[in-house]
Amino acid sequence: MKQNLFIEYPKCSTCKKAKKWLVDNNIDFKERNIVTQTPTVEELSKWIQKNGQDIKKWFNTSGLKYKELNLKDKLVSMSDKEKIELLASDGMLIKRPLLISDEVILIGFKEELWKKLNVQSNSNI
Q1: Which of 15, 33, 66, 103 pairs as cysteine with 97 (C-beta 3.0–4.6 A)?
Q2: What is the residue range of 81's domain?
Q3: Which residue blocks in the chain are alpha helix, DSSP H?
Q4: Distance separating alpha carbons of residues 79 and 72, to the nearest angstrom
């Protein structure tokens, strides 16, 4: 089994909670800083397609950058390609944390969704 990829902003309290949850549940993961190693257009395109949710779900709507750029109004008229390029241009625009595995891609930390991953990872032991 390939290792899970945990993409975080280290100063983010939700990311810290998610990381603690992964550790407490013995889930193996590799860490990646969303700002210093922002996901590429190629990665985001693949993940967004695999995840199946609307691209809007990938935006950090509570972030300062999102508000500064007035994206709530601008996203409506942007193409998917433009949205992905925008996300890839600045890690602070991406909702975090992200957990990327072979089975699932999780955006943000909702413990009940992450528990499903735990069940899957334990079944591989």
Answers
A1: 15
A2: 4-123
A3: 13-24, 41-51, 64-68, 71-74, 80-89, 111-123
A4: 14
DSSP letter for 100, please. Answer: E
User: Regarding beta strands 98-100 and 105-107, do their DSSP bridges make them parallel or antiparallel, or are they unpaired?
Assistant: antiparallel
**Residue 19 tokens, joined:** 């990381």
Rounded CA separation 18/20 (Å): 5
**Cα–Cα distance between 14 and 79 in angstroms, integer?**
29
pLDDT one digit per residue (tens) for the chain, 125 residues: 568 999 999 999 999 999 999 999 999 999 999 999 999 999 999 999 999 999 999 999 999 999 999 999 999 999 999 999 999 999 999 999 999 998 889 999 999 988 876 655 554 43
Which residue in this structure is represented by tokens 């809007």?
A: 56
* 60 within 8 A of 94, measured Cβ to Cβ: yes
For the entire predicted model, the pTM comes to 0.90
- CATH for 90: 3.40.30.10
